[in-house]
Amino acid sequence: MSERKLMKDYFDIDLARHYAKDISKIYPEFKAQEFISSTSAEIADGRMSERIQIFSEQLRKYLPDDYSEATNIIIDVLGLENDKFYFPFAEMYYYRALSKFVETYGLDNFEQSMKTIEEITKRDTAEFAIRPFILKDYDKVEAVFQKWGRSDNAHLRRLVTEGPRPRLPWAKKLPFLRGDVQENFRLLKPFLDDRSRYVEKSVANHLNDISKYHPEEVISFLKENINETSPFIVRRALRTLKKLENDKALRLLQLLK
Predict the structure, then answer these.
(1) Is-contact 201 86, C-beta < 8 A?
(2) What is the three-class DSSP state of 163?
(3) What is the Cα–Cα distance from 118 to 159, expressed in whole angstroms?
(4) What are the start-end ranges of the H helices in 27-153?
(5) Are 228 and 192 in contact (CB under 8 A)?
(6) Which end of the chain has fewer CB within 10 Å, C or N?
(7) d(CA 185, CA 91)
(8) What 3-state class would DSSP assign to 45?
């Protein structure tokens, strides 16, 4: 029986070769062998997050200096859009260093970064990449969120609800939007009965995050919008408060029966 592949081991010399092959088709000047050799030497013994960062740094070194040109190349290697919503890590790791590239180097190129994040999200997710932009200038990000929130693409709608989560797994904690939890509620309200369970799960997880800080506010928000909210969201959003046997949460859950 073969051993299960560790997540960090997906970020290896084979991935370097994969990037080199794909990028060279779009950008013939790419120094493929130098990129492969340099990257494989740097990633040895690194943790997954360290390896992703190294891949991002190496891409910055070997792609064109112009950020727009570099990210247009990244967009061109992304391949077909993804119509699935739950898929194994083996099918999504390819995009992680590309997303990290935008997260690390794109803050001063807002429009181009949003374009790249949108395209990556249609294949995987860019929930980590969007967070520095939220911190820097949420007003600008909010305008993009409004566009994505109206999209037929569930991946984009989910990014609106997942990216600003206060306690997104594997990410640094994020303050409430504009320092006010009501802004988070306002963001989530249009998605309380989304047609995609993928989006609804994100909304519920976002609310569950908030419940760890403001349980009363989450209960009030769900109670006020109970007729417009998917029962799935209510149950999942209140799971932590249910475990804590919060009386108000338990009474609200009783309304679903």
Answers:
(1) no
(2) coil
(3) 9
(4) 32-43, 48-62, 67-76, 96-105, 110-121, 131-136, 138-149
(5) yes
(6) N
(7) 32
(8) coil
> What's the burial of 152, exposed, middle or buried (CB within 10 Å: 0-12/13-18/19+)?
exposed
Q: Which positions ≥6 away from 108 have C-beta within 8 Å?
A: 67
Asked whether the whole model's pTM tops 0.85, one would answer yes
Q: Burial code of 92-122, b = ≥16 C-beta within 10 A, e = fewer?
A: ebbbbbbbbbbbbbbeebeebbbbbbbbbbb
CA distance 222 to 232: 12
pLDDT in tens, 124-168: 999 999 999 999 999 999 999 999 999 999 999 999 999 999 999
Cα–Cα dist 55/57, whole Å: 5
**pLDDT tens-digit profile of 8-45?**
999 999 999 999 999 999 999 999 999 999 999 999 88
Smallest Cα–Cα separation from 55: which of 47, 5, 68?
47
**C-beta neighbour count of 138 within 10 angstroms:** 18
Q: Give per-residue burial for 247-257: e unless 16+ CB within 10 Å, then b.
A: eebeebbeeee
Task: Give burial (CB, 10 Å; 0-12/13-18/19+) of 11.
Answer: buried
DSSP secondary structure letter of residue 3:
P
pLDDT of 1 above 50: no
Q: In whole angstroms, how far apart are CA 192 and each of 142, 207, 236, 257?
A: 18, 11, 12, 19
In whole angstroms, give the CA distance from residue 10 to residue 223.
44
